[in-house]
Amino acid sequence: MRVIGVIRNSRRERLSREEFEELLESAGYEVLAILEQNREEHPRYNIGRGKLEELKRLVEDLRPDKVVFANKLTPSQAYNLWKELRVDVIDRWQLVLEIFEKRAHSKEAKLQVELASLQYEVPLVKEAIRRIKLGDRAGFKGMGEYQTQQYLKHIRYRMGKIRKELEKVRADREVKRKRREEMGFILVALVGYTNAGKSTLLNALAGEEVEARQQMFTTLATTTRRFKLGRKRALVTDTVGFIDNLPPFIVEAFHSTLEEITRADIIVLVLDASEPWAEVRRKVLASLRVLRELKAPDKPMIIALNKIDLVEEEDAEEKARLLGKLLEEVAPNVRAIVKISAKEGRLEELYRALEESIPELPKYRAFRVVIPPTEDAGKVISTIEAIGEVLDVQYGESTVVHALIQTGMIKELTKMNVRIEHLNESDKVEQLENGK
């Protein structure tokens, strides 16, 4: 399908032409031309009248199947543009939804995409009804007023049904999540801009072969796998990629998927180190905005500069330095900035940062574990290492272990016939200073 793209930049918002072209390519479109304009939004056409006339001439000459705007169009603007151009007009978010529809494979992903599409369609149908009452057009998709109103009722009914189905999926996921917590797993969520290499990183960590392509929005459903993090029980989850100004209706539709981020113990924000600094900066700030919308900005976070195999070492170091300076003010919860290559398996810095972040997690508390001589001390210590952090071991008639242990795992540990005493914060600090 052949399209003409339109980008309007303003003082407050500058859109990436490269990203827009990548979105069009991901949707399977042949791009005939890209028209750009620098001005504030025109209330009727989004672009100015002069640029609209230029666009009309391009449409007449090139005969595209669609005109795609990189900007968000109001229903009124979309209708006015269609009336002037007499060709289908869609905006950035409708383009994103088209890509989602192509990528959705699981039942959950298909339901989420359908819900987002219906939410996007509601204001368009309302605008069609308003226009019909004004005698301005034949109706939405050629339907009359009665048919359009009936279609709106159908949309709302279908949205309600989808939400109920997604609620069941969410409930099932909650059961699995609680089971993981009961087993003492550390939950790590991979987040970041689309096409940053999150799926490739999951494959490298977990030794899996999850689909990973050099294209936008390959992942629309969460994938969780176990991976080795020293002796810890750890799970890593790949999540749907972010994009600048992610609209509320997509966040709502993918709530059950994005919820994995809010429930994670550690967030790994993956960035593409091979991109220019301006793009790295834009994408990290866009990702942080999404995390704020999800109410997950205070989670312990590690920034992973991925694809360092594609850049010089000095370039990667400079981007890490600039990121550190940028994030000092906007993301104080960042524990480390690491350089990795998921493709080549160069993950040493990431593993080290993850292990160093574990003792600081809120789920850990300081305990003294007294192992009687009748019990296998080695087995107990091994169990503690899987669900916590051993700080100090004192051998004697009874073995005494000072450790940071997940509070939810204490019940399991007591089954091993040991005595457990909670340490206060001063004891915890002392053990961290004097322990291993």
TrEMBL record:
A molecular function (GO) term: GTPase activity
Gene3D superfamilies this protein is in? 6.10.250.2860, GTPase HflX, N-terminal domain (3.40.50.11060), P-loop containing nucleotide triphosphate hydrolases (3.40.50.300)
Keyword Acetylation listed: no
Main location class: cytoplasm
Q: Does the keyword Magnesium apply?
A: yes
Q: Which InterPro entries match?
A: G_HFLX_dom, GTP-bd, GTP-bd_M, GTPase_HflX, GTPase_HflX_N, GTPase_HflX_N_sf, P-loop_NTPase, Small_GTP-bd
Q: What's any one GO cellular component for it?
A: cytoplasm
Q: Which residues bind GTP?
A: 192-199, 238-241, 306-309, 341-343
Q: Where is the Hflx-type G domain?
A: 186-362
The record's listing under PROSITE patterns reads:
G_HFLX
Q: Which family does it belong to?
A: Belongs to the TRAFAC class OBG-HflX-like GTPase superfamily. HflX GTPase family.
Question: Function of this protein?
Answer: GTPase that associates with the 50S ribosomal subunit and may have a role during protein synthesis or ribosome biogenesis.
User: Its quaternary structure?
Assistant: Monomer. Associates with the 50S ribosomal subunit.
This one is known as GTPase HflX
- Protein source organism: Thermococcus gorgonarius
Starting at the broadest rank, the lineage of the source organism is: Archaea, Methanobacteriati, Methanobacteriota, Thermococci, Thermococcales
